Amino acid sequence: MAQVNDNPSPKRKPRRRGKADLGAYIVPPREAGRRFYEIRYSDGSGTRRKSTGTTKRAEAEEVLRRFLEELPQHRAGLVTIEAGFNRWLAVKSKGVRAVDPKKTLPSYRLLVERLLEHLTVKRRRKNLVQIERHDLRLFLRRLGDPAPRGYGLSPRGVKKQLGLARMLFAFLVEERLLREDPTVGLNRETTTDEATPVGRMSEATYSALLATLDKQIETGFGAPAKVGGRPQRRSGPGKPAAATRPRPLSPKAVAGLVALRDFLEAMYWSGIRSVHLASMRWPDIDLDAAVWTVKAPRSKGGVRTFPIRSNLLPLLERRRRLLNTGPFPPIEALRSTWARWKVQNPEFKGTSFHQLRSSFASRAEEAMPRGAALWLTSKIPSASERTASSELLGHGSGRMTATYVDFEVERLREFLEAM
C-alpha cells in the first residue's frame, strides 16, 4: 500500500523580477537555471535571453545598461511608446517634414496626448511592441463616445484622427521601430459617413429647421425618445407611454442647441465656410463697422474682410455677452451637436452645413441683376473673373462659384418669362 505524505513541501513562490524601463530585465542564476545572471528581452516576435557572464547583481545590472545602449533601434520591444511618439513629433516640428507649428502641429500633439493616455494609463501599455490592433479599435470608439467617457468627436473627426494615427505608425514602421502597422484594417471601425448632400437648402426646409430648434430651446424638451425595445410602463390610464413623450433637455444641451441655431443662421446669411466661421474670434469682428475678417489658408481665399448683413448684428451682439473667445464653439463641438440632433430629428437627416453655403451662393446669384450676371468688370465675363457672389464666398473665380449655384424652378421660370 502506498504511503501518503501528510506534510507536502510548500511550493516555492516565484521571485519578483526587476524589470527595466525599456522592457528588458535580469533573471538571477537560481531562477534562470544557469550559472550566471541572465538578460531576458523581447525583439517583437518572442522572448530572447542573453548571459551576463557574472554572478553579481550589480555587475549584471551594468551589463544590462550597456546592452540597452548598444541594442539596435529596430528591436521594437525595447522602445517605449512615449519615446517613439516623441520622435515622430520631433521630425514633424523641424526638418524637411516640418508642418505648420501654429495650426497643424498642435493637432498632432493632441493626438499623441490622447494615445498616450489611452495606451499607457487605460490599457497599461509601456513599449511599442505591446500595442495591439484591439487597443486602437477601442481608442477610435472612445473618440466618438460622448463626454465624460469619451471625447465626443463627430464621425468625420474620428476619421481625421485615424488618418493622423496612420501617419504616426507608418513613420514608426519606416524607422524600424515597429514590425507592422497596427492601424491596418481599422476602416470599418469608424462610422461611415453618408455622402454630403449636394445642392441648396430650400427656404421651407430652413424655416422648418429653425422652427424646430426654437421650439426645443423655448420649451426645454427635445424630440420624443425612440420607440422600441422593452415596452414602456404607462403612468396612468389613457396617457401615452414614456417612449412617446418629449425628452427633457439639460441646460448644457439647450445651450448647445442655441449655439447651433445661431451658427446655422449665420451660415445661411453669410455663406462663410463652417470651419472658418467657427474659428472666428472677437478681435476679427468689428460690429461698429459691420465687417468681419476671415483668416483662411491661401488656397481657401486667404485673409479677407466681408460685410456683415444687418440681421446678423443683433445675433452677434447677443453672442458677445457670453464672454467667450469667439461667437461660436469649436467646429468639432458644432458637428457633434448637429449629428446628434439629426439622429433625434430624422426628418432633417439629409441636411448639412455645405447646403447652407450652397443656398447662399444660389440666392446671391438669383439676386443679381440680369439674371445672375452682375460681373465686377465692364469687360465680357470669363470663367476666370470673379463675381460679387464669388467675392462673398471667397472664391478665386466665377467657375468655382458656378459649382455651388442651384437655381430653383420658380426662379428659372421668372428668368424665362423676363426674356
State the gist of this model.
The chain folds into three domains: 26-71; 81-189, DNA polymerase, domain 1 (Orthogonal Bundle), CATH 1.10.150.130; 203-225 and 246-417, hpI Integrase, Chain A (Orthogonal Bundle).
Main sheet strand line-up: 1-2-3
Could you tell me the CATH topology label of the largest domain: hpI Integrase, Chain A
CATH architecture of the largest domain: Orthogonal Bundle
Gyration radius (Cα, Å) is: 31 Å
The helix fraction, in percent, is: 40-55%
Tell me the domain tally: 3
Largest sheet: 3 strands, antiparallel
Q: What is the level 1 CATH name of the largest domain?
A: Mainly Alpha
Low-confidence runs: 15-22, 227-232, 370-383
> What is the overall pLDDT average?
79
SSE series: EHEEHHHHHHEEHHEEEHHHHHHH
Helix/strand-derived class?
mainly alpha
Report the strand count: 8
Report, as a whole number of angstroms, the end-to-end distance: 119 Å
- Estimate what percentage of residues fall within beta strands: 5-15%
The dominant shape is elongated
Number of helices: 16
